[in-house]
């Protein structure tokens, strides 16, 4: 997850770098196409410059200042310079025209300017090759950046997949939590209702007990009074019976004396 987090932090810079490299690559391709079209439309025009030398004999002869190969080399050199200007803007394709062999010179006599032109042409080609190497290096960096972007995209896809899974798990847990909460609230309500019913029954039981205690107290008071009355009645009855027995015994004794 730390790798995914780090990849997420590098995404904006990588995307900007890749966009810039792709833009430069498109510009390179456009420039290459323009150069190819320019090469196809360009023709090296051979010109001959003449001047008249007056000799001792008074005759004049026409001499070429430049040979055919010089003209061709200068034309190619001009094209190479033009190509170099375009390559300095980081084009990525090689110019195929510079690989074409030069035609053999039709002049049998050596031209003093050919070596210089050839040297300039070779130097220009070397510069173009160096520039092309830099372009290829830039293209390699572009490919590496593209590969890095693809890697980041994979990490992003994985992170998004994990995020979706986590979201689903969270939603599932939230639903289960809500179900448990609803069940808990239902049980709490049922418990509260039962407790309220028990409290009501307890209050009624207390009232009944109080009523029964009062009734028992009244009954006990009544029974105590009855017991007391019975005791008094019993005492009176016993006293009456004792008195009757005394009279009977005293009456019997008198009859015996007579």
Automatic annotation (TrEMBL):
<feature type="region of interest" description="Disordered">
    <location>
        <begin position="233"/>
        <end position="258"/>
    </location>
</feature>
<feature type="compositionally biased region" description="Polar residues">
    <location>
        <begin position="233"/>
        <end position="243"/>
    </location>
</feature>
<feature type="coiled-coil region">
    <location>
        <begin position="4"/>
        <end position="41"/>
    </location>
</feature>
<feature type="coiled-coil region">
    <location>
        <begin position="121"/>
        <end position="215"/>
    </location>
</feature>
<feature type="compositionally biased region" description="Basic and acidic residues">
    <location>
        <begin position="88"/>
        <end position="98"/>
    </location>
</feature>
<protein>
    <submittedName>
        <fullName>Uncharacterized protein</fullName>
    </submittedName>
</protein>
<feature type="region of interest" description="Disordered">
    <location>
        <begin position="88"/>
        <end position="117"/>
    </location>
</feature>
<keyword id="KW-0175">Coiled coil</keyword>
<feature type="compositionally biased region" description="Polar residues">
    <location>
        <begin position="103"/>
        <end position="117"/>
    </location>
</feature>
């Amino acid at each position: 997850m730390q790798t995914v987090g780090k990849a997420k932090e590098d995404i904006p810079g990588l995307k900007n770098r890749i966009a810039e490299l792709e833009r430069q690559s498109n510009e390179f391709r456009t420039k290459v196409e323009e150069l190819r079209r320019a090469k196809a439309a360009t023709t090296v025009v051979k010109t001959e410059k003449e001047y008249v030398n007056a000799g001792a004999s008074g005759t004049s002869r026409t001499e070429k200042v430049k040979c055919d190969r010089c003209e061709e080399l200068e034309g190619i050199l001009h094209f190479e310079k033009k190509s170099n200007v375009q390559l300095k803007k980081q084009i990525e394709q090689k110019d195929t025209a510079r690989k074409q062999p030069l035609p053999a010179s039709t002049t049998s006599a050596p031209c003093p300017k050919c070596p210089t032109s050839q040297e300039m042409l070779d130097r220009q080609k070397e510069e173009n090759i160096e520039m092309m190497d830099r372009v290829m290096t830039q293209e390699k960096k572009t490919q590496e950046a593209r590969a890095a972007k693809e890697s980041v995209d994979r990490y992003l896809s994985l992170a998004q997949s994990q995020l979706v899974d986590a979201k689903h798990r969270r939603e599932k847990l939230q639903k289960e939590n809500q179900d448990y909460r609803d069940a808990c609230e239902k049980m709490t309500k049922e418990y509260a209702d039962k407790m309220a019913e028990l409290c009501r029954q307890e209050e009624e039981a207390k009232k009944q007990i109080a009523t029964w205690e009062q009734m028992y107290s009244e009954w006990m008071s009544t029974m105590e009074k009855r017991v007391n009355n019975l005791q008094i009645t019993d005492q009176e009855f016993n006293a009456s019976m004792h008195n009757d027995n005394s009279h009977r015994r005293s009456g019997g004794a008198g009859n015996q004396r007579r």
